[in-house]
Write a structure and sequence with these properties.
Layout: E1 14-18, H1 22-34, E2 39-43, H2 46-56, E3 60-63, H3 73-83, E4 88-93, E5 113-116, H4 124-131, H5 152-162, H6 167-174, H7 178-191, H8 202-213
Parallel strand pairs: 1-2, 1-3, 3-4, 4-5
Helix pairs in contact: 2-3, 5-8, 6-7
Length: about 220
Protein backbone atom coordinates (compact mmCIF):
# COMPACT_ATOMS: atom_id res chain seq x y z
CA UNK A 1 0.00 0.00 0.00
CA UNK A 2 2.89 2.34 -0.75
CA UNK A 3 1.61 5.88 -1.17
CA UNK A 4 4.82 7.54 -2.32
CA UNK A 5 8.30 6.49 -3.28
CA UNK A 6 10.15 9.48 -1.86
CA UNK A 7 9.60 12.80 -0.12
CA UNK A 8 9.41 14.69 -3.41
CA UNK A 9 6.03 13.09 -4.00
CA UNK A 10 4.49 14.46 -0.81
CA UNK A 11 2.78 17.30 -2.67
CA UNK A 12 0.75 14.71 -4.57
CA UNK A 13 -0.67 13.09 -1.44
CA UNK A 14 -4.35 13.57 -0.72
CA UNK A 15 -4.84 13.37 3.05
CA UNK A 16 -8.13 13.48 4.94
CA UNK A 17 -7.96 14.51 8.62
CA UNK A 18 -10.78 13.14 10.80
CA UNK A 19 -10.75 14.75 14.24
CA UNK A 20 -13.60 16.05 16.39
CA UNK A 21 -11.55 18.61 18.34
CA UNK A 22 -11.45 21.74 16.18
CA UNK A 23 -8.10 23.07 17.43
CA UNK A 24 -6.37 19.72 16.87
CA UNK A 25 -8.00 19.36 13.45
CA UNK A 26 -6.89 22.81 12.28
CA UNK A 27 -3.39 22.26 13.66
CA UNK A 28 -3.03 18.95 11.80
CA UNK A 29 -4.19 20.50 8.53
CA UNK A 30 -1.77 23.41 8.84
CA UNK A 31 1.07 21.11 9.89
CA UNK A 32 0.71 18.90 6.83
CA UNK A 33 0.50 21.91 4.54
CA UNK A 34 3.63 23.32 6.15
CA UNK A 35 5.35 19.99 5.40
CA UNK A 36 4.48 20.33 1.74
CA UNK A 37 1.27 18.31 1.46
CA UNK A 38 -0.93 20.49 -0.76
CA UNK A 39 -4.11 18.43 -0.83
CA UNK A 40 -5.54 18.23 2.70
CA UNK A 41 -9.20 18.00 3.69
CA UNK A 42 -10.76 17.62 7.12
CA UNK A 43 -13.89 16.34 8.83
CA UNK A 44 -15.17 16.28 12.40
CA UNK A 45 -17.51 13.28 12.45
CA UNK A 46 -18.48 10.10 10.60
CA UNK A 47 -21.07 11.69 8.31
CA UNK A 48 -18.85 14.54 7.15
CA UNK A 49 -15.86 12.18 6.86
CA UNK A 50 -17.64 9.75 4.55
CA UNK A 51 -18.99 12.64 2.48
CA UNK A 52 -15.52 14.18 2.23
CA UNK A 53 -13.98 10.84 1.28
CA UNK A 54 -16.44 10.40 -1.59
CA UNK A 55 -15.72 13.89 -2.94
CA UNK A 56 -12.03 14.27 -2.05
CA UNK A 57 -10.88 10.67 -2.73
CA UNK A 58 -7.98 10.63 -0.25
CA UNK A 59 -4.88 8.46 -0.53
CA UNK A 60 -4.81 8.19 3.25
CA UNK A 61 -6.63 9.31 6.38
CA UNK A 62 -5.30 10.49 9.72
CA UNK A 63 -8.09 9.64 12.10
CA UNK A 64 -8.84 9.89 15.81
CA UNK A 65 -10.58 6.84 17.30
CA UNK A 66 -12.84 8.56 19.80
CA UNK A 67 -15.03 10.99 17.83
CA UNK A 68 -17.74 11.45 20.43
CA UNK A 69 -21.28 10.23 19.80
CA UNK A 70 -21.88 8.01 16.79
CA UNK A 71 -19.48 5.83 14.78
CA UNK A 72 -15.85 5.96 15.89
CA UNK A 73 -12.67 6.20 13.86
CA UNK A 74 -12.35 2.43 13.52
CA UNK A 75 -15.86 2.21 12.03
CA UNK A 76 -15.01 4.99 9.58
CA UNK A 77 -11.72 3.39 8.54
CA UNK A 78 -13.40 0.03 7.83
CA UNK A 79 -16.16 1.73 5.83
CA UNK A 80 -13.64 3.66 3.75
CA UNK A 81 -11.44 0.60 3.23
CA UNK A 82 -14.48 -1.27 1.89
CA UNK A 83 -14.70 1.32 -0.90
CA UNK A 84 -10.94 1.79 -1.32
CA UNK A 85 -8.86 -1.24 -0.21
CA UNK A 86 -5.64 0.70 -0.90
CA UNK A 87 -6.52 3.52 1.50
CA UNK A 88 -3.73 4.29 3.96
CA UNK A 89 -4.88 4.56 7.57
CA UNK A 90 -3.10 6.36 10.40
CA UNK A 91 -4.83 6.45 13.77
CA UNK A 92 -3.78 9.44 15.86
CA UNK A 93 -5.36 9.11 19.28
CA UNK A 94 -4.99 9.71 23.00
CA UNK A 95 -5.66 6.03 23.70
CA UNK A 96 -2.60 4.03 24.72
CA UNK A 97 -4.22 0.84 23.45
CA UNK A 98 -7.06 0.53 20.89
CA UNK A 99 -8.74 -2.08 23.09
CA UNK A 100 -9.56 0.70 25.56
CA UNK A 101 -12.19 1.68 23.02
CA UNK A 102 -14.65 -0.99 21.92
CA UNK A 103 -13.53 -1.62 18.33
CA UNK A 104 -15.88 -4.58 17.81
CA UNK A 105 -14.98 -8.02 16.59
CA UNK A 106 -13.19 -6.69 13.47
CA UNK A 107 -10.51 -4.85 15.40
CA UNK A 108 -8.31 -2.34 13.59
CA UNK A 109 -7.92 -2.39 9.80
CA UNK A 110 -4.86 -4.26 8.55
CA UNK A 111 -1.70 -2.32 7.72
CA UNK A 112 -2.82 0.68 9.74
CA UNK A 113 -0.43 2.76 11.83
CA UNK A 114 -1.28 3.58 15.44
CA UNK A 115 0.19 6.76 16.92
CA UNK A 116 -0.41 8.34 20.32
CA UNK A 117 -0.92 12.08 20.31
CA UNK A 118 1.42 12.42 23.28
CA UNK A 119 4.23 10.79 21.27
CA UNK A 120 4.08 13.31 18.42
CA UNK A 121 7.01 15.48 19.47
CA UNK A 122 7.88 16.59 15.93
CA UNK A 123 5.61 17.29 12.99
CA UNK A 124 7.52 15.11 10.52
CA UNK A 125 6.45 11.99 12.47
CA UNK A 126 3.06 12.19 10.75
CA UNK A 127 4.66 12.39 7.34
CA UNK A 128 7.04 9.54 8.18
CA UNK A 129 4.03 7.46 9.19
CA UNK A 130 2.29 8.09 5.89
CA UNK A 131 5.41 7.04 3.98
CA UNK A 132 5.84 3.81 5.95
CA UNK A 133 2.32 2.38 5.84
CA UNK A 134 3.55 -0.83 4.22
CA UNK A 135 6.05 -1.49 7.01
CA UNK A 136 3.98 -1.08 10.17
CA UNK A 137 1.02 -3.14 11.31
CA UNK A 138 -0.76 -1.45 14.21
CA UNK A 139 -1.82 -4.50 16.30
CA UNK A 140 1.87 -5.34 16.84
CA UNK A 141 3.09 -1.76 16.95
CA UNK A 142 5.30 -1.30 20.05
CA UNK A 143 3.87 2.21 20.41
CA UNK A 144 0.75 0.57 21.84
CA UNK A 145 1.98 0.46 25.42
CA UNK A 146 1.86 0.01 28.36
CA UNK A 147 -1.63 -1.45 28.07
CA UNK A 148 -0.39 -3.94 25.47
CA UNK A 149 0.77 -6.24 28.25
CA UNK A 150 -2.84 -6.68 29.35
CA UNK A 151 -5.09 -9.42 28.04
CA UNK A 152 -8.43 -8.59 26.47
CA UNK A 153 -10.24 -9.74 29.62
CA UNK A 154 -8.02 -7.51 31.79
CA UNK A 155 -8.78 -4.54 29.55
CA UNK A 156 -12.51 -5.19 29.99
CA UNK A 157 -12.16 -5.52 33.77
CA UNK A 158 -10.12 -2.32 33.92
CA UNK A 159 -12.86 -0.47 32.00
CA UNK A 160 -15.58 -1.85 34.30
CA UNK A 161 -13.65 -0.84 37.42
CA UNK A 162 -13.13 2.64 35.96
CA UNK A 163 -16.86 3.04 35.29
CA UNK A 164 -17.54 2.39 38.97
CA UNK A 165 -19.03 -1.11 38.80
CA UNK A 166 -18.80 -3.11 42.00
CA UNK A 167 -17.17 -6.53 42.19
CA UNK A 168 -20.62 -8.09 42.36
CA UNK A 169 -21.76 -6.22 39.24
CA UNK A 170 -18.62 -7.19 37.34
CA UNK A 171 -19.08 -10.80 38.42
CA UNK A 172 -22.67 -10.79 37.18
CA UNK A 173 -21.72 -9.31 33.80
CA UNK A 174 -18.89 -11.79 33.28
CA UNK A 175 -20.78 -14.76 34.67
CA UNK A 176 -18.23 -15.61 37.37
CA UNK A 177 -18.15 -15.53 41.15
CA UNK A 178 -17.38 -12.44 43.21
CA UNK A 179 -14.31 -14.22 44.58
CA UNK A 180 -13.03 -14.86 41.05
CA UNK A 181 -13.61 -11.20 40.26
CA UNK A 182 -11.64 -10.13 43.31
CA UNK A 183 -8.79 -12.40 42.25
CA UNK A 184 -8.90 -11.06 38.70
CA UNK A 185 -8.71 -7.46 39.93
CA UNK A 186 -5.85 -8.38 42.25
CA UNK A 187 -3.94 -9.97 39.32
CA UNK A 188 -4.66 -6.89 37.20
CA UNK A 189 -3.28 -4.62 39.91
CA UNK A 190 -0.19 -6.81 40.20
CA UNK A 191 0.36 -6.74 36.44
CA UNK A 192 0.12 -2.95 36.43
CA UNK A 193 2.18 -2.73 39.64
CA UNK A 194 -0.60 -0.80 41.31
CA UNK A 195 -0.40 -0.80 45.08
CA UNK A 196 -2.60 0.79 47.72
CA UNK A 197 -1.42 4.23 48.80
CA UNK A 198 -2.28 6.08 51.98
CA UNK A 199 -4.90 8.29 50.35
CA UNK A 200 -6.03 6.14 47.44
CA UNK A 201 -7.31 2.58 47.40
CA UNK A 202 -6.64 0.02 44.70
CA UNK A 203 -9.81 0.65 42.69
CA UNK A 204 -9.16 4.40 42.61
CA UNK A 205 -5.59 3.79 41.45
CA UNK A 206 -6.79 1.42 38.72
CA UNK A 207 -9.32 4.03 37.63
CA UNK A 208 -6.62 6.67 37.53
CA UNK A 209 -4.44 4.34 35.45
CA UNK A 210 -7.33 3.77 33.02
CA UNK A 211 -7.86 7.50 32.55
CA UNK A 212 -4.13 8.01 32.00
CA UNK A 213 -4.21 5.34 29.27
CA UNK A 214 -7.17 7.03 27.58
CA UNK A 215 -5.42 10.38 27.61
CA UNK A 216 -7.61 11.87 30.33
CA UNK A 217 -6.50 13.17 33.72
CA UNK A 218 -7.94 12.00 37.01
CA UNK A 219 -6.65 13.64 40.17
CA UNK A 220 -6.86 11.66 43.37
CA UNK A 221 -7.28 13.84 46.43
Amino acid sequence: MALVKNNSDRALLRILIIEDESLVRVTLVETLRHLGVKFVASASDAFSALKAAAEFRPDAIICDIDLGAGPDGVDIAHAMRAKNPKLGVVFLTSLSDPRLKNTGTRGLPTDAIYLKKSDINRSSILLDALFSLTDVKSPENPAIAPASKLTGIQIEILKMVATGLSNAEIASIRGITVKSTENAIARLAKTLKVKDERNANQRVLLTRFYFELTGKILKVS
